[in-house]
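tokens incoming
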């Protein structure tokens, strides 16, 4: 079958613009599959169209699939699930939230105790700010005299 190269180029433009019909795509595929020597500017299009066709017909099969034993994999999955469930249970039972440390370095796990400690620190910070302001005022008063 003879193909008009000008028509093929127009079909390629329509194909890349997303405007080609199914019949026009079939013409492009048949052209690239039947034509061994295509013009230089269409070689990449041939690779794309023929490559897509080839890739669409391929099926994925992992390399390890030929060597695996179904029962062994299933047992391994169940064992891993069991270990994960046991770990989650242990973490849930023995986990305590840490809210901070007291002055002796002991862990504070009670949120109310941690909040009281934070309140004390806030009061101390405010006290320090008040002392700094009082010292500044005193210093200004001494400079004025």
């Amino acid at each position: 079958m003879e193909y008009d190269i000008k028509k093929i180029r127009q079909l390629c433009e329509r194909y890349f613009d997303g405007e080609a019909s199914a019949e026009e795509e079939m013409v492009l595929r048949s052209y690239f599959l039947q034509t061994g020597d295509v013009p230089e500017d269409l070689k990449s299009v041939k690779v794309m169209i023929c490559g897509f066709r080839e890739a669409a017909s391929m099926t994925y099969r992992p390399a390890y699939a030929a060597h695996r034993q179904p029962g062994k994999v299933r047992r391994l999955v169940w064992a891993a699930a069991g270990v994960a469930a046991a770990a989650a249970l242990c973490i849930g039972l023995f986990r305590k939230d840490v809210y901070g440390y007291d002055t002796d370095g002991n862990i504070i796990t009670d949120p109310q105790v941690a909040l009281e400690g934070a309140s004390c620190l806030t009061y101390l910070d405010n006290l320090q700010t008040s002392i700094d302001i009082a010292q500044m005022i005193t210093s200004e008063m001494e400079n004025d005299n």
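note: Helices lie at 5-16, 22-34, 43-57, 70-94, 111-144.
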